[in-house]
Design a protein that fits this description.
It is built from 13 helices and 18 strands. α6 runs parallel beside α9. The longest helix is centred in the middle third of the chain and has 18 residues.
Length: 453
C-alpha cells in the first residue's frame, strides 16, 4: 500500500510535513516527501490522501462495548466497527459487564474473541469482586492473563482504605487504576448538574489525587466535568502525584442547557455542567492538566433512552464516531488547541497511561526528506522535518519506518453531518450536527478497516 500526498502528523515526535508512505507487511516501510516516493508495484493499493492529514490511529482508553451481558446495546464486533469509523485503532474496554471482568474466565473469553476483530481491543479488569466495592479482585492473576489496568467504572469506590490497598496492589504490578468520581452521598438523582452536583465529584477527586500522591500509584481521573476537579488535578500534578485526567468530548462541547434540548440523549454520569465548568475543562486541556480525550462510549437502546421518566433512563451516550470531529470543531478550529496538541491527547498520552507501544520496533532506515517547506492547514504552519536515523521510543504516536501501520486519514477542514452510525446504538445529542474532520480511512496493521462511503 502507498499513501500519497498526505500531510503527516507525528505527535510522538512533534513533526508534521507533506509525505508519502509505503506500507508493507503491516508496517511503515518507507516515508518520503512527494516526488521521492517509489512507483506502485503491480497490485499495490494506492490511497490518495490529498488535502488530508495522515496521523497515528487514535486510542480511546474509556469505552463500553457491553459484551458480555448487554449485547443488544453493543458487542465487540459492532463496537470495533464504530471505533474504526471514528479513526480509532486501539480501545480499552471497561469492566462493568455482566458478568463483570472480575475473574480469569470472563477475561480469557474476551481476549480470545477480541483477537478476531479488525482493531486492537484491550481490557481492564474490575477493582472489586462483582463491582460491589468490598473485596479486591485477584489483581495478580488478572494482570498475568492480560488485563491492562483496573477500574470499577460506573460505580464509585467509597471505601478510602480499600482504594489505598487497590493502589498499592496495582502499583506493584505497574498498572494504572481508573476512577469514576461521584460520591453517592451527595447525589439525589444521577444525570443532571442540579441533582448530581459537582461537589460529589470534587470530593473523590481530591481523595484519590492525594492517595495517588501517598502511594505513588498511577491513576486516571475519568471523564472530568467540574472546574474544581480540574484545579484539584492541577494541584496534584504540581505535587508530582502520578495522576492522569481525561475529558470526554461532550463535557468540552456542551453544557447543562443541552438537557433541555436533547433530553435523555444529553444525560450522562457525571452530568453536563455550567459554561464555567466547560471553559475550565478547555483550560485544563490547554495547559496539560487534562492529558487525555476519551469518549466514555456508552451505548443504550433507543427504547431505554426514550423512557418518559428522565431519571429512569440510563445515563451515557455513544462517542467513538464523533470524538475526533468534536475535538477539531470545538477545540482546534476555535484556536484552543493546535491539531498536533489534539492528536497528542488522542494518541501519545493514552498510550502513556496504558503503556501501549508501537506494536513493532521502529527501525532506523534513512529516507529522503526536504527541509523548511511551509504548508498551512487548520490554522497551523507545518514544516518538513529532517529525517532522524536514530531509533525512536516504542511509545505509540511517532510515525517512523518499522512502526506498525496504525493510521487515520482525515480532512480537518471537511465537514459532514453526524449520523449513520456503525454502533448498534444512536444515543447521542450530536446527530444531525455539522462537524469538521471527516475521516476517509482508518488503517490497522496495514489493513484498511474503515473507508468513508
Amino acid at each position: 500500500m502507498i499513501i500519497k500526498n498526505g500531510i503527516l502528523f507525528s505527535p510522538g515526535s512533534k513533526e508534521s510535513y507533506r509525505a508519502d508512505l509505503r506500507v508493507t507487511d503491516g508496517k511503515i516501510a518507507e516515508i518520503a516527501v512527494p516526488g521521492f516516493a517509489p512507483d506502485a508495484q503491480d497490485g499495490e493499493e494506492v490511497i490518495d490522501a490529498s488535502s488530508c492529514v495522515v496521523a497515528p490511529g487514535l486510542i480511546d482508553v474509556h469505552v463500553h462495548f457491553r459484551d458480555p451481558g448487554y449485547t443488544y446495546k453493543e458487542d465487540l464486533h459492532t463496537g470495533a466497527r464504530a471505533a474504526a469509523a471514528g479513526g480509532f485503532t486501539t480501545v480499552v474496554c471497561m469492566a462493568n459487564t455482566k458478568p463483570a471482568v472480575d475473574n480469569p474466565d470472563t477475561l480469557s473469553d474476551l481476549l480470545s474473541r477480541a483477537g478476531n476483530e479488525a482493531i486492537r481491543i484491550r481490557f481492564t479488569a474490575a477493582v472489586t469482586k462483582h463491582l460491589q466495592g468490598q473485596e479486591l479482585t485477584d489483581f495478580e492473576a488478572l494482570a498475568a492473563l492480560g488485563a491492562c489496568g483496573f477500574t470499577d467504572d460506573g460505580i464509585p469506590l467509597t471505601d478510602a482504605k480499600l482504594v489505598e490497598s487497590a493502589m498499592r496492589r496495582a502499583g506493584s504490578l505497574g498498572l494504572p487504576l481508573s476512577f469514576h468520581e461521584e460520591d453517592p452521598a451527595f447525589i439525589e438523582k444521577a444525570g443532571t448538574n442540579r441533582t448530581a452536583p459537582a461537589i460529589a465529584e470534587d470530593l473523590l477527586v481530591a481523595r484519590d489525587c492525594m492517595l495517588a500522591h501517598y502511594t505513588d500509584a498511577v491513576i486516571d481521573i475519568q471523564h472530568i466535568s467540574s472546574a474544581a476537579s480540574v484545579a484539584l488535578v492541577r494541584t496534584a500534578k504540581q505535587l508530582n502525584a502520578p495522576v492522569f485526567a481525561e475529558a470526554a468530548p461532550h463535557h468540552f462541547s456542551l453544557t447543562e442547557d443541552a438537557v433541555g434540548t436533547y433530553g435523555t440523549f444529553a444525560k450522562m454520569n457525571p452530568p453536563l455542567r455550567t459554561e464555567a465548568d466547560r471553559q475550565a475543562i478547555i483550560g485544563g486541556l490547554q495547559d496539560g492538566t487534562i492529558d487525555l480525550i476519551a469518549t466514555d462510549h456508552a451505548p443504550h437502546s433507543t427504547e431505554e433512552k426514550k423512557r418518559e421518566d428522565f431519571f429512569a433512563a440510563p445515563s451515557g451516550i455513544i462517542g467513538l464516531e464523533t470524538s475526533l470531529a468534536l475535538g477539531i470543531t470545538n477545540l482546534v478550529h476555535p484556536g484552543y488547541l493546535t491539531l498536533m496538541q489534539l492528536l497528542e491527547k488522542m494518541t501519545v498520552n493514552p498510550a502513556k497511561l496504558y503503556r501501549i507501544d508501537d506494536q513493532a520496533q521502529p527501525g532506523s532506515a534513512s529516507v529522503p526528506y526536504a527541509a523548511n517547506v511551509p504548508y498551512k492547514n487548520a490554522g497551523e504552519h507545518l514544516n518538513i522535518a529532517i529525517a532522524s536515523t536514530q531509533d525512536d521510543t516504542r511509545l505509540y504516536g511517532a510515525i517512523r519506518p518499522g512502526c506498525a501501520a496504525d493510521l487515520v486519514i482525515f480532512n480537518p477542514d471537511e465537514s459532514f453531518i453526524a449520523g449513520g452510525y456503525q454502533s448498534k446504538s444512536e444515543n447521542t445529542p450530536f446527530t444531525g450536527m455539522e462537524l469538521y474532520g471527516k475521516i476517509h480511512y482508518t488503517i490497522c496493521g496495514g489493513t484498511v478497516v474503515w473507508q468513508a462511503p
